[in-house]
């Protein structure tokens, strides 16, 4: 497996800050252009319709921004991380919902006032106008997607069902585009407006197509990933070794994850994210999965030679974000996978590893972790026992400080179950570890 030297940044612009600045600049610049277009297009047929148009234009902008957030563009993903991007996507999604509902309500109210008719009658009349009908259908789909994405429903639905329904967003997008095109005032208020909206839509669709279709198809055609070995690590954990062509050209880093499909073994729509559990290199990739449901449990019976369709690598849980020479790597349970890979990649620098498990028998890849820590002259603390039995959480601020007294001077990487990760992040805040030194990977996307 390969090694890469530590990248320690001091005083320079952090990659995450560069990406955030680029995103904010994009959002603010486009918001300003849209305001200018709104003002220069003049008022609507009445005051209510003018405000409705304002919300409609911003709904279009939010919809296009949503596409960029999920486009999985490698440059953004490596700097911000898919977990954070999907959290933003979620919040922009709910903002979009309220913007669309306000736009639709104001359109109906505006025409009802204009025609001196009831809102019900106006709604029915507007649904007979093709441009309005398309807008209504897009709005209805956005409402459906928002409802299934509320935490309560989202938890009850199988991931694949929720994801399949969520893809209705693309239908909503197509309808919204034609609605905006037919509704004329925005696209045709000036030559600049026409050019601007066409460029923006093409850019957003182009980004989505590139990140979600072109890059994955090209990488899979180029690398031809194949299962080379399947090795049980314990009763419920298995490692899958994947080989391929030209893997030295795959831009993967330790700590990242891929979305894996094994079409000959599973249904093609089953795609699961698993971190690389060894540093990627020309000889291959490895994932290590704990059985959580049918897809992860089924990896145990994956035949050698099965073709794999691999999307990624994704994620910002890497040494690209190192700011200090010393690192503290904290893993809980199967959250050891990206940490194990990072240990291999990090050829230099002082490292401490905290590995939280119920008992030593549950510590997956423990021998490898011990070996790599010893190789680097680092320190490993295996933290066993239930919190109730050992009295206090090892991740309470005072316990963490006792274990790693110089924690504030280190980069801290944490990957584990949600409750453990939250406890560690809270302790790090209490200990005043600068936020730029804290990096977390969650085994769940928003
Ligand atoms: C970035 C990331 C890295 C991960 N790395 C590892 C790892 O190295 N080792 C490991 O054992 N587990 C890892 N996981 C968790 C792993 O993805 C899930 O346990 C697995 O997908 C469960 O699938 P299943 O069909 O077996 O179980 P299910 O019962 O279908 O799912 C169990 C849980 O996993 C979630 N899940 C299922 N499919 C997906 C998907 N495509 N995308 C996001 N969430 C999904 C479900 O919402 C549910 O909460 C990681 C998750 C993420 C998001």
Automatic annotation (TrEMBL):
Q: Which InterPro entries match?
A: FAD-bd_FR_type (IPR017927), Fe3_Rdtase_TM_dom (IPR013130), FNR_nucleotide-bd (IPR039261), MRET (IPR050415), OxRdtase_FAD/NAD-bd (IPR001433), Riboflavin_synthase-like_b-brl (IPR017938)
Residues in FAD-binding FR-type domain copies: 220-320
Q: Where are the transmembrane segments?
A: 21-43, 55-75, 87-111, 123-149, 161-182, 194-215
What's the chief localization of this chain?
membrane
Q: Which UniProt keywords apply?
A: 2Fe-2S, FAD, Flavoprotein, Iron, Iron-sulfur, Membrane, Metal-binding, Oxidoreductase, Transmembrane, Transmembrane helix
GO cellular component: a single term = membrane
From the UniProt record, which GO molecular function terms apply? 2 iron, 2 sulfur cluster binding; flavin adenine dinucleotide binding; metal ion binding; oxidoreductase activity
Record membrane topology:
Multi-pass membrane protein
Q: Pfam families in the record, alphabetically?
A: Ferric_reduct, NAD_binding_1
Q: Indicate yes or no for the key word Metal-binding.
A: yes
Q: Which cofactors are named for this entry?
A: FAD
- Signal peptide positions on this chain: none
- Asked if Disulfide bond is a keyword of the record, the answer is no
Per its record, how is this protein called by name? Answer: Ferredoxin reductase family protein
Source organism per UniProt? Streptomyces muensis
């Amino acid at each position: 497996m390969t090694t890469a030297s530590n990248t320690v940044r001091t005083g320079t612009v952090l990659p995450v800050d560069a990406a955030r600045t680029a995103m904010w600049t994009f959002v603010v610049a486009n918001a300003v252009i849209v305001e200018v277009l709104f003002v220069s297009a003049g008022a609507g047929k009445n005051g209510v319709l003018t405000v409705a148009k304002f919300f409609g234009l911003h709904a279009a902008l939010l919809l296009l921004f949503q596409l960029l957030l999920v486009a999985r563009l490698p440059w953004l993903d490596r700097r911000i991380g898919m977990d954070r991007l999907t959290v933003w996507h979620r919040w922009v999604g709910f903002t979009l919902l309220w913007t669309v509902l306000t736009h639709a309500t104001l359109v109906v109210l505006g025409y009802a006032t204009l025609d001196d008719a009831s809102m019900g009658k106006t709604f029915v009349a507007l649904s007979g106008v093709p441009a309005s009908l398309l807008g209504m259908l897009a709005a209805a789909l956005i409402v459906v997607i928002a409802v299934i994405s509320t935490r309560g429903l989202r938890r009850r639905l199988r991931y694949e069902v929720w994801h399949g329904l969520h893809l209705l967003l693309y239908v909503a997008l197509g309808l919204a585009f034609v609605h905006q095109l037919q509704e004329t005032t925005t696209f045709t208020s000036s030559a600049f407006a026409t050019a601007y909206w066409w460029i923006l839509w093409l850019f957003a669709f182009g980004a989505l197509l590139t990140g979600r279709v072109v890059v994955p198809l090209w990488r899979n055609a180029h690398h031809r990933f194949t299962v080379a070995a399947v090795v049980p690590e314990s009763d419920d954990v298995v490692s899958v070794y994947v080989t391929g062509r030209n893997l030295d050209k795959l831009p993967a880093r330790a700590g990242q994850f891929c979305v894996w499909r094994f079409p000959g073994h599973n249904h093609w729509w089953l795609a699961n994210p698993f971190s690389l559990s060894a540093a990627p290199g020309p000889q291959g990739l490895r994932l290590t999965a704990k059985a959580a449901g049918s897809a992860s449990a089924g990896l145990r019976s994956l035949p050698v030679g099965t073709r794999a369709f691999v999307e990624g690598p994704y994620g910002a849980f890497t040494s690209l974000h190192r700011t200090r020479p010393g690192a503290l790597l904290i893993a809980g349970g199967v959250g050891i996978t990206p940490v194990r890979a990072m240990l291999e990649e990090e050829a230099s620098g002082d490292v401490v590893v905290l590995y939280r498990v119920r008992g030593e028998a549950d510590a997956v890849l423990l021998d490898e972790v011990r070996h790599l820590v010893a190789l680097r002259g680092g320190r490993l603390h295996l933290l066993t026992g239930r919190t109730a039995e050992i009295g206090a959480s090892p991740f309470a601020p005072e316990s963490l400080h006792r274990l790693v007294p110089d924690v504030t001077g280190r980069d801290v990487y944490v990957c584990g179950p949600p409750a453990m990760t939250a406890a560690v992040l809270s302790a790090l805040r209490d200990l005043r570890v600068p936020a730029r030194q804290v990096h977390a990977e969650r085994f769940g996307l928003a």
